[in-house]
Design a protein that fits this description.
Blueprint lengths: L15 E4 L6 H11 L3 E5 L11 E5 L6 H9 L5 E3 L3 H9 L3 E3 L5 E2 L4 H16 L12 H27 L1
Parallel strand pairs: 1-2, 1-4, 2-3, 4-5
Antiparallel strand pairs: 5-6
Length: 168
Protein backbone atom coordinates (compact mmCIF):
# COMPACT_ATOMS: atom_id res chain seq x y z
CA UNK A 1 0.00 0.00 0.00
CA UNK A 2 1.42 3.36 -1.05
CA UNK A 3 1.43 6.08 1.61
CA UNK A 4 -0.11 9.44 0.77
CA UNK A 5 2.32 12.27 0.00
CA UNK A 6 0.50 14.66 2.34
CA UNK A 7 -1.99 14.32 5.14
CA UNK A 8 -4.73 15.83 2.98
CA UNK A 9 -4.46 13.07 0.35
CA UNK A 10 -5.91 10.56 2.79
CA UNK A 11 -9.33 12.13 2.32
CA UNK A 12 -11.09 14.21 -0.28
CA UNK A 13 -11.68 16.90 2.31
CA UNK A 14 -9.20 19.67 2.88
CA UNK A 15 -6.78 19.29 5.78
CA UNK A 16 -6.17 21.87 8.49
CA UNK A 17 -2.60 22.81 9.41
CA UNK A 18 -1.92 24.78 12.59
CA UNK A 19 1.26 26.72 13.29
CA UNK A 20 0.96 25.48 16.86
CA UNK A 21 3.69 27.27 18.79
CA UNK A 22 1.80 29.81 20.94
CA UNK A 23 -1.46 29.30 19.02
CA UNK A 24 -4.38 30.36 21.25
CA UNK A 25 -7.10 28.61 19.22
CA UNK A 26 -6.07 24.94 19.15
CA UNK A 27 -9.21 23.77 20.97
CA UNK A 28 -11.48 25.83 18.71
CA UNK A 29 -9.75 24.49 15.61
CA UNK A 30 -10.32 20.89 16.71
CA UNK A 31 -13.96 21.64 17.53
CA UNK A 32 -14.72 22.98 14.04
CA UNK A 33 -12.64 20.30 12.28
CA UNK A 34 -14.43 17.50 14.18
CA UNK A 35 -17.79 18.89 13.10
CA UNK A 36 -16.71 18.65 9.45
CA UNK A 37 -14.63 15.46 9.68
CA UNK A 38 -11.31 17.12 8.82
CA UNK A 39 -7.82 16.03 9.77
CA UNK A 40 -5.95 18.61 11.88
CA UNK A 41 -2.16 18.67 11.94
CA UNK A 42 -0.46 20.69 14.67
CA UNK A 43 3.11 21.63 13.75
CA UNK A 44 5.48 22.97 16.41
CA UNK A 45 9.14 23.31 17.37
CA UNK A 46 8.45 22.04 20.87
CA UNK A 47 6.35 19.33 22.46
CA UNK A 48 2.63 19.08 21.88
CA UNK A 49 -0.01 17.46 24.05
CA UNK A 50 -0.66 13.97 22.63
CA UNK A 51 -4.11 13.09 21.35
CA UNK A 52 -5.76 9.71 20.88
CA UNK A 53 -8.07 11.15 18.23
CA UNK A 54 -7.05 9.64 14.86
CA UNK A 55 -8.07 12.89 13.15
CA UNK A 56 -5.44 14.88 15.07
CA UNK A 57 -1.78 14.68 14.09
CA UNK A 58 1.14 16.23 15.92
CA UNK A 59 4.36 17.04 14.10
CA UNK A 60 7.34 18.25 16.10
CA UNK A 61 10.04 19.70 13.87
CA UNK A 62 13.60 20.73 14.69
CA UNK A 63 14.28 23.93 16.54
CA UNK A 64 15.76 25.47 13.40
CA UNK A 65 14.46 28.90 12.43
CA UNK A 66 11.22 28.59 10.40
CA UNK A 67 11.30 24.76 10.50
CA UNK A 68 7.58 24.57 11.38
CA UNK A 69 6.74 27.12 8.69
CA UNK A 70 8.74 25.21 6.09
CA UNK A 71 7.06 21.91 7.03
CA UNK A 72 3.60 23.42 6.65
CA UNK A 73 4.45 25.02 3.28
CA UNK A 74 5.91 21.74 1.99
CA UNK A 75 2.96 19.59 3.10
CA UNK A 76 -0.12 21.76 2.62
CA UNK A 77 -1.78 21.65 -0.75
CA UNK A 78 -4.08 23.97 -2.62
CA UNK A 79 -7.45 24.41 -0.88
CA UNK A 80 -6.19 23.22 2.52
CA UNK A 81 -6.63 25.49 5.52
CA UNK A 82 -3.88 26.94 7.70
CA UNK A 83 -4.05 28.76 11.01
CA UNK A 84 -1.17 31.12 11.81
CA UNK A 85 -0.38 34.54 13.23
CA UNK A 86 2.90 34.52 11.27
CA UNK A 87 2.38 36.96 8.38
CA UNK A 88 5.39 35.82 6.28
CA UNK A 89 4.14 32.21 6.58
CA UNK A 90 0.64 33.35 5.63
CA UNK A 91 2.05 35.02 2.51
CA UNK A 92 3.84 31.82 1.46
CA UNK A 93 0.68 29.77 1.96
CA UNK A 94 -1.67 32.18 0.18
CA UNK A 95 0.69 32.00 -2.80
CA UNK A 96 0.03 28.22 -2.90
CA UNK A 97 -3.77 28.63 -2.89
CA UNK A 98 -4.24 27.72 0.76
CA UNK A 99 -6.99 29.31 2.88
CA UNK A 100 -5.21 31.11 5.74
CA UNK A 101 -6.71 32.51 8.94
CA UNK A 102 -5.11 34.33 11.84
CA UNK A 103 -6.13 33.33 15.37
CA UNK A 104 -8.51 36.32 15.55
CA UNK A 105 -10.37 35.08 12.47
CA UNK A 106 -8.66 37.54 10.16
CA UNK A 107 -8.35 35.99 6.71
CA UNK A 108 -5.17 36.36 4.72
CA UNK A 109 -6.10 36.47 1.03
CA UNK A 110 -4.28 37.35 -2.19
CA UNK A 111 -5.87 40.80 -1.85
CA UNK A 112 -4.87 41.41 1.80
CA UNK A 113 -1.64 39.54 2.50
CA UNK A 114 0.62 42.04 0.74
CA UNK A 115 -0.54 44.92 2.94
CA UNK A 116 -0.37 42.74 6.05
CA UNK A 117 3.23 41.82 5.21
CA UNK A 118 4.15 45.46 4.52
CA UNK A 119 2.62 46.59 7.84
CA UNK A 120 4.38 43.80 9.72
CA UNK A 121 7.73 44.80 8.21
CA UNK A 122 7.14 48.50 8.91
CA UNK A 123 6.21 47.82 12.54
CA UNK A 124 9.25 45.58 12.95
CA UNK A 125 11.51 48.35 11.62
CA UNK A 126 9.88 50.92 13.94
CA UNK A 127 10.28 48.60 16.96
CA UNK A 128 13.93 47.99 16.14
CA UNK A 129 14.49 51.75 15.83
CA UNK A 130 12.84 52.27 19.23
CA UNK A 131 10.06 54.39 17.75
CA UNK A 132 7.26 52.14 19.00
CA UNK A 133 6.81 49.50 21.66
CA UNK A 134 6.07 45.92 20.63
CA UNK A 135 2.93 45.32 22.66
CA UNK A 136 0.25 43.12 21.14
CA UNK A 137 -3.32 43.44 22.35
CA UNK A 138 -4.59 40.62 24.58
CA UNK A 139 -6.53 37.77 23.07
CA UNK A 140 -10.22 38.26 23.93
CA UNK A 141 -13.39 36.19 24.00
CA UNK A 142 -14.54 38.30 21.06
CA UNK A 143 -11.42 37.23 19.09
CA UNK A 144 -12.16 33.59 19.92
CA UNK A 145 -15.75 33.92 18.74
CA UNK A 146 -14.70 35.69 15.53
CA UNK A 147 -12.18 32.92 14.88
CA UNK A 148 -14.78 30.16 15.33
CA UNK A 149 -17.14 31.86 12.89
CA UNK A 150 -14.41 32.58 10.33
CA UNK A 151 -13.01 29.05 10.51
CA UNK A 152 -16.42 27.47 10.05
CA UNK A 153 -17.05 29.67 6.98
CA UNK A 154 -13.60 28.90 5.59
CA UNK A 155 -14.05 25.15 6.08
CA UNK A 156 -17.42 25.24 4.31
CA UNK A 157 -15.92 27.19 1.41
CA UNK A 158 -12.95 24.81 1.11
CA UNK A 159 -15.21 21.72 1.18
CA UNK A 160 -17.45 23.27 -1.46
CA UNK A 161 -14.44 24.08 -3.67
CA UNK A 162 -13.08 20.55 -3.24
CA UNK A 163 -16.49 19.15 -4.18
CA UNK A 164 -16.65 21.39 -7.25
CA UNK A 165 -13.16 20.23 -8.33
CA UNK A 166 -14.08 16.56 -8.02
CA UNK A 167 -17.19 17.09 -10.17
CA UNK A 168 -15.19 18.79 -12.93
Amino acid sequence: MELPETVAEETRNPAVYVDADACPVKTETVKVAERHGLVVTFVANSGLRPSRDPMIRNVVVSGAFDAADDWIVENARENDIAITADVPLAARLVEKGIHVLGPTGRPFTPQTVGMALAMRNLNQDLREAGEIKGYNPGFSARDRSAFLQALDQTVRRAIRQESDKSKA
